[in-house]
């Protein structure tokens, strides 16, 4: 399967993706745990049906030392007993923000308040940034029909 367009061969889209990647790199310096960022990336990618990003973030999370068991349970995190309360709050915020069009009024105050109980202001900012960026990546990759399965951790440096 070939993508509809190679984003890195396109002068226009290549620049756009490079800026999104640069923004994502800023999150590496945040105090939001990398494992939480990968759980967020994986869950949003599942919701958005982005096979490329689901593959990528599953593998990147494994590379960080995350267990396959927990990663397999991300889609059903509400019923799973393997996530901390902070991770559950991040996953809930991710779902609400990713499905923003499904709820009039956007993300409920209760969801935000729950996340704010577990994360400081800088971590919340990083969480919002991570959710925003993965949704942008997902949408671009879904439109382009980027194939999944061949990603190797670190291939984008």
UniProtKB/TrEMBL annotation:
It comes from the Bacteria. Residues 25-96 form the Carboxymuconolactone decarboxylase-like domain. Pfam families: CMD (PF02627). Gene3D superfamilies: AhpD-like (1.20.1290.10). This is Carboxymuconolactone decarboxylase family protein. InterPro entries: AhpD-like, AhpD_core, CMD-like. NCBIfam families: ahpD_dom (TIGR00778). Transmembrane segments: none annotated.
């Amino acid at each position: 399967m070939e993508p509809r367009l190679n984003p890195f061969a396109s002068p226009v889209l290549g620049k756009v993706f490079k800026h999104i990647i640069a923004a994502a790199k800023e999150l590496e310096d945040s105090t939001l745990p990398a494992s939480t960022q990968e759980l967020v990336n994986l869950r949003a990618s599942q919701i958005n049906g982005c096979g490329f990003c689901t593959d990528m973030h599953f593998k990147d999370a494994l590379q960080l030392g995350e267990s396959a068991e927990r990663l397999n349970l991300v889609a059903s995190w509400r019923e799973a007993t393997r996530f901390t309360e902070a991770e559950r709050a991040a996953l809930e915020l991710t779902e609400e923000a990713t499905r923003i069009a499904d709820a009039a009024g956007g993300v409920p105050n209760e969801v935000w308040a729950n996340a704010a109980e577990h994360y400081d202001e800088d971590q919340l900012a990083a969480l919002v940034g991570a959710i925003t960026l993965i949704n942008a990546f997902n949408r671009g990759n879904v439109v382009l029909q980027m194939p999944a399965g061949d990603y190797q951790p670190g291939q984008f440096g």
